[in-house]
tRNA-specific 2-thiouridylase MnmA (Halomonas huangheensis), 370 residues
Amino acid sequence: MSVPTGKVIVGMSGGVDSSVSALRLLEQGYQVEGLFMKNWDEDDGTEYCTAKDDLADAQAVCDRLGIKLHTANFAAEYWDNVFEHFLAEYKAGRTPNPDILCNREIKFKVFLDYAEMLGAEMIATGHYVRQQVRDGRPRLLKGLDHNKDQSYFLHAVPEAAIARTLFPVGEIEKPEVRAIAERHGLATARKKDSTGICFIGERRFSDFLRQYLPAQPGTIQTPDGDVIGEHMGLMYYTLGQRQGLGIGGLARYPEEPWYVAGKDLERNVLIAVQGKHHPLLYSDSLATEAMDWIAGEPPATEGRFTAKTRYRQSDVPCTIRTCDDGGVEVLFDDPQRAVTPGQSLVLYDNDICLGGGVIRSTWNAQERAA
Ligand SMILES: Nc1ncnc2c1ncn2[C@@H]1O[C@H](COP(=O)(O)OP(=O)(O)OP(=O)(O)O)[C@@H](O)[C@H]1O
């Protein structure tokens, strides 16, 4: 077997996955260096900001492995290409997923360019995905550990960037990753998995959003227009959500929980229904904005695929039709609960991630019949 001689820059987050990624590449004979990115400037030293600790952990691992760690600040690019879009989506009443855009715009674009400047043709990350060349083209596959698979977040990364990236932990299961880190005495072996929005972190979301968007309180109504409560601002609510509505004790309704079923942006009204499985919480079809196809174009044969409409969801069978505007229409075999505009639909052909697009509209059987 030939020994790889190329230089690879590993995105070191200070977590266990990127630590083990760097280790594996060294074992495989690559010339490895690390890069810690800081993409959010605010809040240094507050309870939310873990960047300092993460950098220290990344440094400790690099010292242990004997590799160089670079640092870079892409906060301006993150703000312009990810965060502004994120705010615009909330303003439009949708619930965006900034990590998808962050991967496309920062981790697999700005980072790649930066790595090139450092003299590396390849980068690596600790994402749980695999890359495989089929028919001469790089394909993005789900991580071997389906429990940790992160292809949902990488579906908008173009083929050319996938081809220049190594995913050293995609072929192993998470418990094994921790065991490897433990065996090699890496400081991150037992570190908790990160949660929250990448680079922004975990924080009281409504407080955070309020700093950037004015809250416009309004009424909560039933689909028939009966006013049953007040909301703090439509952006704070997600379809299908139960908690935080503050409705209860209404004599004219049974004592059953209420769920968010829709947002009427024009009237600033939040629509709520009773019962976790109310028909208005289900959609049997949707349309997306223009798709990001990893291969740059839709699959040669349209038709039957599986899809996810949110990260932690098992794939569901569906039929797709491509539209002239670059989006797709998707018809699910079974209605899906709480399909949310602004989130992404991601399509799969077995383990191959084909791409995805932001959900623009959804319909349920009643609406289709009307
Ligand atoms: N601040 C950062 N600097 C450099 N690379 C990063 C940074 N944050 C994330 N990455 C890269 O993106 C990958 C996936 O990030 P994610 O936030 O999903 O972390 P994760 O799956 O918990 O991985 P890890 O255990 O390495 O933190 C990381 O493994 C790392 O390669």
Q: What stands out?
A: Residues 281-367 form a domain with the Elongation Factor Tu (Ef-tu); domain 3 fold (CATH 2.40.30.10). The chain has three domains: 7-184, 214-276, 281-367.
